[in-house]
Amino acid sequence: MKKPGFVWAIIIAFTFFPHIAIVLTDSARGENRNKLPELKLASVDINQASEKDFTKLPGVGPELAKRIVAYRTKHGRFRRVEDLLVIRGIGRKKWKTLKPYVRVEQQARE
Length: 110
Description:
Blueprint lengths: L3 H13 L5 E3 L14 E3 L2 E2 L5 H5 L6 H14 L16 H7 L3 E2 L7
Parallel strand pairs: 3-4
Antiparallel strand pairs: 1-2
């Protein structure tokens, strides 16, 4: 028996926060129906991510991941996610695909 409250919570979450990707773990697939599923945000801070982290994103292979990290190393921190558009291999279409999965954390002031 499905709980309608949970379904509505997911619908409301996607309505107000469409940019957040939610990944359900194995416990949410019905192995333990009495517990609420664990939800994990699947987004990457592009100023901290490694090449390996970037390759987990949709449409990003090892070569593009290397270019992103090389650009960041040469030019410094990204100020906003739109800055990815200057990297060869990331056009508008790919950027729209990546947008829900990437973020730029504000740098802590010292």
